[in-house]
Design a protein that fits this description.
The chain is mainly α. It has one domain: lambda repressor-like DNA-binding domains (434 Repressor (Amino-terminal Domain)), CATH 1.10.260.40. The protein is 62% helix and 0% strand. The two termini are 24 Å apart.
Length: 120
């Protein structure tokens, strides 16, 4: 599979990133205070990021990927990956958490299996 590089405009990042930060934090089960403590930031700093009034730097985004078990920084920016927390069942949330911890080869294997199941 070919690696595709994606380009994002500043406007797209400013629009998408805040909602993604909040959605992934909630999905991971953290409060703003807990994330702030892990990052040595105030809860209000986390809230500023999640409301779009400020943006975290790249190093902080990479740390957030580790905290939220996100394999790829692009997940913060892709419009189709923002989970609607209220609509996810517990089993779906569990699958997302497991997916984020999976290796790329395991993810590929799962995709193949799911595609085969959908063909039936």
């Amino acid at each position: 599979m070919k690696n595709e590089k994606k380009a994002y405009s500043v406007q797209a990042i400013e629009k998408i990133l805040p909602e993604k930060l909040k959605a992934f934090r909630k999905l991971a089960g953290y409060t703003t205070a807990q994330v702030g403590e892990i990052l040595n930031k105030t809860p209000s700093a986390i809230t500023l990021w999640e409301t779009g009034k400020a943006l975290p730097d790249v190093n902080t985004l990479l740390k957030l990927c580790n905290i939220y078990k996100i394999a790829d920084l692009n997940e913060f920016l892709e419009t189709n990956t923002a989970p609607d927390i209220k609509s996810l069942a517990k089993s779906e949330q569990e699958l997302i958490k497991l997916w984020r911890c999976a290796t790329p080869s395991l993810k590929n294997a799962i995709k193949v299996i799911l595609k085969q199941c959908n063909k039936s």
